[in-house]
Design goal:
The protein has 2 domains: 107 residues, Rossmann fold (3-Layer(aba) Sandwich); 177 residues, 3-Layer(aba) Sandwich (Rossmann fold). It is 34% helix and 16% strand. It has 10 helices and 12 strands. The protein has a 7-stranded parallel sheet. Strand 6, helix 5 and strand 7 form a beta-alpha-beta unit. The radius of gyration is 21 Å and the shape is elongated. The protein binds NADP nicotinamide-adenine-dinucleotide phosphate.
Length: 307
């Protein structure tokens, strides 16, 4: 039995339909399961209730409903040996790159200025930006794809990751010195890091101070990566040209928060890349078959690293 739990009602419906079409014999239930919990073998979830996973004693794996697992790892009672999986999916990756490319072009082509000028009814030409350099924090499944697509568009792209990368056309940085060096050459800073104890609050005043004057920040990863007061200060004192933010420390972003009304901030409601259950279902089903036949599981998360 597979339980869908700790995900939105729409997502649960999409997963139910996709799994029914692809694997009609698989028993799929909505969680949390109260009766016969010992029958639950697999779980798909974003943010399970604390203790829920530990209550399924015959669970063989828990799979995140998307790329990030921070919502699952926040549950301290998650059994240490329980395999944790995540989705690496073609549609998920493509959608994220669309968001990132759009945000970079928004800054590069000064679209915020033209939208504001139109609202005033003014024909006001600004000089075209040239040579916009993009720095991407995180060169994993999502960061590497966005880097490649931006590079194809002609942007000079660099990335920062834990391990050195050899990606054609993409300059690779690592470590604290590498982070500062990357920031210093990033007219647009894109964050595609997972939220872990090491990365929480990484976009703070120290990092923002390294960015070139008038830089732009794009964060579609997790709100916890940003020190909000620091980012708001850099936006308000004019050091930054603006920001595109899809994720927030508190979601939904509460009414009245400064991001909502800041003229240079583009807010979207955590929609940069929503999971397409039809695309991702075969991967989940493959892992179920693997678990049942004792073969290695795909896209397993390193619990010690946190991603
Ligand atoms: N807003 C949305 O709709 C949405 C949708 C999907 C995903 N997301 C977010 O996007 C995140 C990234 O997804 P992904 O699939 O690209 O993850 P991933 O494949 O695990 O890649 C993570 C990258 O971050 C790097 N990294 C992690 N910790 C680091 C550290 N302490 N210092 C330096 N680099 C570090 C990794 O370095 P190495 O390569 O060296 O390991 C890797 O390059 C997810 O965790 C999730 O939070 C958001």
């Amino acid at each position: 039995m597979l339980v869908l739990t700790g995900i939105g009602r729409d997502e649960a419906e999409q997963w139910t339909d996709a799994l029914a079409a692809a694997a009609p014999d698989l028993e799929v239930v909505r969680g949390p399961v109260e009766d016969e919990r010992e029958r639950v073998e697999f779980a798909l979830t974003f943010v399970p209730a604390a203790g829920e996973m530990a209550g399924y004693v015959n669970l063989r794996f828990v799979c995140a409903g998307g790329a990030g697992v921070d919502g699952i790892l926040r549950d301290d009672s998650l059994p240490p040996a329980l395999p944790l999986l995540r989705l690496v999916d073609r549609v998920l990756t493509a959608r994220m790159s669309e968001y990132v490319v759009h945000a970079v072009l928004h800054h590069h082509r000064r679209i915020a200025h033209y939208v504001a000028a139109q609202a005033r009814g003014e024909w006001e030409v600004r000089e075209q930006r040239e040579g916009t350099r993009v720095g991407i924090l995180g060169l994993g499944a999502l960061g590497a794809d966005a880097a490649h697509k931006l590079s194809v568009l002609g942007f000079r792209v660099a990335g920062w990751s834990r391990t050195k990368k050899a990606i054609p056309e993409i300059e690779s940085f690592t470590g604290p010195d590498g982070l500062r060096a990357l920031a210093a050459q990033s007219d647009v800073l894109v964050c595609l890091l997972p939220l872990t104890p090491d990365t929480r609050g990484i976009i703070d005043s120290a990092l923002l101070a390294e960015l070139p004057e008038g830089a732009y920040v794009v964060n579609p990863s997790r709100g916890g990566l940003v020190a909000d007061d620091d980012l708001l200060a850099a936006l308000s004192n004019g050091r930054l040209a603006g920001a595109a933010l899809d994720v927030f420390n508190e979601e939904p972003l509460p009414a009245g928060r400064p991001y909502w009304s800041h003229p240079n901030v583009a807010v979207t409601p955590h929609v940069a890349s929503r999971t397409d259950a039809r695309s991702a279902a075969p991967q989940l089903l493959d892992n179920i078959r693997r678990a049942r036949s004792g073969r290695p599981l795909l896209n397993r998360v390193d619990r010690d690293r946190g991603y």
